[in-house]
Amino acid sequence: MQWTDDQRNAIYAPPAEIIVSAAAGSGKTQVLTTRIIERIKSDENPVSVDRLLIVTFTKAAAAEMRERIGKALAAAVKSETDDKKRRRLSRQLTLLSGASICTIDAFCFNIVRQNYYRVNLPADVRIGDTGETALLQIDALEKTTDAFYSALAAYRGEELSESAAADGDIIKEMFPDEAERGIILEGFEMLERCYSSDKSDSDFSGKKKGGDYTKMISELYKKAQSAAFPDKWLGEIADAYSRDYAETPFYSLTVRECRAMAESLAQMAENAADFSESCGLGYETAFREACESFRAAAEKTDYDSLRACFSAYSSVKLPRRKSGSAAEDADVVKAIRAKMDKIGERCAELLELSYDECAAVQKKLYPMIKALCAAAKALGRIYSDKMTERKILDFPACEHLALEIITADGKTLTEAGAVIRDSFDEIYIDEMQDSNDLQDTLFSAISSGAMFMVGDVKQSIYGFRSADPSIFTEKCDSSSEDKDAEKRKIFLSRNFRSRRNVISAVNSVFDIIMRTDVCGIDYIKEHRLDFGADFMQGAENERKAEIDVVHCAGNAAELCRAEAEFTAAEIEKTVAEKRLVWDKDEGVLRPARYCDFAILMRAPGSAAEVYEQALSSHGIPSYYEDGGSLYTSGEVGAVLELLKLIDNSECDVPLASAMRSPMFMFGENELLAIRLCGGGSFKSALDKVCGGETDVSSALRDKCVSFMQSVGRWRRAAGFVSVEELIRRIYDETNIAAAALAFPDGEKRRANLDLLLERAAEFESTNLRGLFNFVNYVTGIQQSGGSAAEAKSMSEKMDVVRITSIHKSKGLEFPVVYLVGCEKAYHGADNMPGGMIISRSTGVSINVTDPDLRFRFRSPMQRIAALTEKTSAAAEEMRLLYVALTRAREELHAVCAVKKPESFSPLGYAPASYEILFADSYQKLLKLSVNNRWNVRYIEAGTAEESEAFEEKQEISFTADERVSRLLDYSYPYSAAVTLPNKASVSQLKEEAFNLLYEADGTLHSLNRADHTRLKLKKLKTKREITGAFFGTAHHKMLEHLLFDGTPVKAQLEELHSRGILSDEEYDITDAGKIEKFVSSPLGRRMGAAKKLNRESPFVISIPAAEIEPSLPENETICVQGVIDCWFEENDRVVLVDYKTDAYENPSEIAEKYKKQLSYYERALQSKFNNKLIEKYLYLLHKDDIISI
Fold first, then answer.
1. How far apart are CA 730 and CA 727, in angstroms?
2. CB-CB neighbours of 1171 under 10 Å
3. Left, alpha or beta for 120 (phi > 0: left; psi -120 to 50: alpha)?
4. Which residues contact 659 (CB under 8 A, 6 or more apart)?
5. What pLDDT, on the 0 to 100 scale, is given for residue 1020?
6. I need a surface site. Which of 407, 627, 652, 893 has the fewest CB within 10 A?
């Protein structure tokens, strides 16, 4: 391979402390791997592979690294002609299996396992399961609060029981100084008074349990774990509140940030003045005066002087606009002023209190902050003791113990640390930008001076995992580009991934917004991308990056749908036009496929489903791995609710949820009928029904009895079988696994149920046993914010459009990227209980609360902490935007949906730092930096009717309902679409007009039927009367799943029966011969030849009420919804097929009867295919007639 000079320097540089800043697409992984291989193969100063420590970010990366090294060594052995060298390389290949190529977690656990006796751990210690450690944390937190309550009681001289005294002794031992302990305990009492969320929840001893203050302790403990020495860090936080206010980080940060904001305001005022003067608006004098005022404020260096400047902040007052100037230009200036006001008001808020008032607040908060830090320390100790007792560790504890084994202070090595350091000649660290203080301290301690670190600070996007990008930046700043330096830095800026058009667009954005005064990165000086993808030929295929502004005057949901519809249409158009993309594997240009497209989102959530629906409506397959939790997925959630019920049958919510689930299929009306049978709990009403004490129907009573018998049988089994076996029995008896297959994404649902069995088996291998503990185990995972990943439902190599989050896209690349949802605001750090803010720069801050006077306000410490967290979060969002834009190889699109048309014209000036930091969406960042490297398109979305006409089939929720009230008060969400609005002028519509929406057998031809047929998955246990409605349902179901690929209908019928989609009676009544005739008919053959058959497609359209009753007002409309049985495309036309099972004598009568109904279907299709002919057919099963309408 031909390397660049920078790459060659990184590969062949002699061992030293080297940090490589590798830009997106610069071949980072290949450079790292090649350096390792070359160091092993070197003739002059080779290193043995078992003397290397290679740390990767994921297990998959470690496995890939080991495989690459193995292949390279095998090739070297094969090609080497010198016997001595061949033997050495062969030995390296043998040693590779035992080489330290692993994640940081695996490396630390190996250290702990080999040195367990040095930290008083049992020899058989293991990494605990997420649920297991979550439960221990909950127990430890409760014991911590109990210990503080007991210590507080002892401090007051109260008598304590022996166990309570023992709890209190924990605090006494940790904080032996009585004066200090007194401050801590008084602070803890203040915390409990100020931050208890439920004052009424107390036990017999009068202790208040739970509340925000316990969550605050837990959150602070978790945040502290990223520090190398958590107790030291917590102590420093508390000590900061004991110093003079002028000596605290809050004071210095407030002064620094207010000066920076003043400088930004001055720059914005100057920009506004220059623009006003160039446009002849007459505003320049007012802005230049404001600029001078802000410049003077920026020169102030103390709190009181700054406060005097901003205490009376007011917006710049503008004179009347000069005649002849443009109103649009005035709007630009006013927009700048609005942004200035936002910054100025934040500055005034920071300086609202006087210096003395800030000092008084600090003094008031000191005991509570000290108590919080002390409680977090105590929680750490108690949790550690509990883990040792259980012989388990979590990963943070494992890392801390590894550091303790290596060094006591981060500098001086222990005996074991020296042995570990001497075990490695060189250390290699991948993704260094995602390290934290603990990990950096650990690696620095064991380094002998030869440490090779690779990363890209611009791609540090894991702040929520405590990644600290400043570590990488500081290492770069302290290193030199000199080849002979002990600490050397190398920049890899050439991008081999993207076309020149993408590189130019990316650079044009980050040249403007990624600056040292904004996010600590000087993009222009050190991080600008250089074009290097010489393998891409055909510049004529390059297209400018695009900002697509979709205008839709609707709510947030409508904006999302409009944006999704536009994106889907663009992808469909690109593939249809056979636009060329570069195939890296084949080295040629080829027509674009669906797998060449990626839709990236900041936080997909429900928007991903909207995009899936939009793509599907255009016949485009898609793949979205939502990364959701296994335990909150619908099908698994239903089983967990049933397990909760089995464990405790008196709980109403699990009871109603289990009954409502697809395992038992109690409807809303049935649950309501049960509820009305008696007061008290829902369980007591159910008992009355089962006991025959009510007048409900015998069918409902039998159903309830059968349900309770099943629950009782499983409860008895839970006493003597494993949880895994119990779940397996539930699967077998309820047929839920087969039922899951019939739901959308059925394979994934079935795989999730299988994963639940695996998790139950893993649970049984821990120190816990039994159903009660398993329920608590899962609850602990959910409460702690942990999760277990769902199963994957589709191979990522399939020809599908990929929908994913920006975080998941890191490390990937796609020919065409659509970054969507750019208009959505991001809101910075997550809210913590009690308004607490934890940051590296400010420590801990909380609000000021007085429960007696019943007031609460943001403390000055909290205000500056909120600002620094906002700016830190804004910097991370900027890095996220960089990751998103650099995923594209050939085409890049940023899509924004807006309510009002917005201009993306170049600003013509450099935006101020806080102007960038206060831009709270990707759309606003792009507006600040857009230039001629981007093509801006303005798209007018369709009308509301057009954008809503083709909703994709709604997925029936499989999730067990969490609230009984929602179950019992359920109302059909689309009722407004099929009933008249509540107005007298419309209520006169004649009933016969609506009968057109019904089948002859009385079944509503709408979403209800689709829901009904999908829920009837269990085999019927009793024979039922065969009605016309049942005959129609069975055949509709068969036709919905029918394949037109030549597979015999009889074989398909048997397959649907075996999978539980057709019940016994439905299987018996379905006439395979009739359907076989239809398949072999000319229409059936056309359906078989179609590229895609769209079946059971729901729609909603608006029609004038006057069409049904001419006397009604012309402007009155009603909504009609329905489900089209089948439609498909053929060149210049769309073919619509509807199935009917009515008995008849003359086919023309049926045609006339359903003519109006099919006209509604035609309208729905026309809203999607404006210029195509719609052919309409009725397939009449009664006499096998096919009629063209």
1. 5
2. 6
3. left
4. 666, 671, 707
5. 29
6. 627
pLDDT tens string 711-760: 888 988 888 888 888 888 888 888 887 777 766 666 777 777 888 888 88
- Give the 3-state secondary structure percentages of the chain, helix then strand then coil, rounded to 5: 55, 15, 30
Please check whether residue 1157 is in contact with residue 1117, taking contact to mean a CB–CB distance below 8 angstroms. no
Residue 295, C-beta contacts closer than 8 angstroms, at least 6 positions apart: 262, 263, 266
Long-range contacts of 298-302 (CB under 8 A, 24+ apart): 298/259, 298/260, 298/262, 298/263, 298/266, 300/259, 300/262, 301/255, 301/259, 302/255
Is the whole model's pTM more than 0.85, yes or no? no
pLDDT digits (tens, 9 = 90+) for 192-209: 988 875 443 333 233 333
Contact residues for 245 (Cβ-Cβ < 8 A; gap 6+): 251, 355, 358, 359, 362
Question: What φ, ψ does residue 306 adopt, rounded to 5°?
Answer: -65, -40
- State the Cα–Cα distance between residues 90 and 76, nearest whole angstrom: 9
Closest CA to 805 of 791, 819, 793, 815: 819
State the amino acid at position 656 in one-letter form.
A
Assess whether pLDDT exceeds 70 at residue 372. Answer: yes
**Two tokens, residue 100:** 């330290």
> How far is it, in rounded angstroms, from Cα 841 to Cα 847?
18
- Supply the DSSP string of 855-922, one letter for each residue: EEE--HHHHHHHHHHHHHHHHHHHHHHHHHHTTEEEEEEEEEEESS-------SSPPPHHHHHT--SH
Whole-angstrom distance, CA of residue 922 vs CA of residue 914: 15
Which tokens is 211 given?
């509340």
Neighbours of 1022 (CB within 10 A): 7
Predicted confidence band of residue 986 (pLDDT cuts 50, 70, 90): very low
* Pairing mode, strands 1117-1130 and 1094-1104: antiparallel
Tokens 């059968």 belong to 706
How many other β-carbons are positioned within 10 Å of the β-carbon of residue 1058? 11
How far is the CA of 572 from the CAs of 598, 608, 709, 1092, 1164, in angstroms? 13, 18, 54, 14, 20
* CA–CA distance, 1073 with 1084 (Å, rounded to integer): 14
Answer whether 709's CB lies under 8 Å from 692's CB: no
Write out the DSSP string of 280-312.
T-S-HHHHHHHHHHHHHHHT--SHHHHHHHHTT
1022/537 Cα distance (integer angstroms): 69
- How many Å apart are CA 296 and CA 383, to the nearest integer? 53
CA–CA separation, 974 and 1121 (whole Å): 9
3-class secondary-structure state, position 1132: coil
Residue 974 CA to residue 1011 CA, distance in Å, equals: 13
Residue with token string 């991308």: 529
Q: What does the alpha-carbon distance between residue 881 and residue 459 come to, in Å, rounded to a whole number?
A: 9
- Contacts with 137 (C-beta within 8 Å, 6 or more apart), sequence order: 218, 383, 780, 784
The amino acid that residue 897 corresponds to is A
SS3 1180: strand
Name residue 1102's beta-bridge partners.
1119
What residue ranges in 1070-1116 does DSSP mark as E strands? 1094-1104
276 and 927 Cβ atoms separated by less than 8 Å:
no
Type of residue at 394: D
Phi/psi at 18 (5° precision) = -120, 130
Q: Of 1108, 1106, 1101, 1127, whose CA–CA distance to 1116 is shortest?
A: 1106
E strand segments, 32-160: 52-56, 100-103, 126-127
Start-to-end CA distance of the chain, whole Å, equals 66
Amino acid occupying residue 613: Q
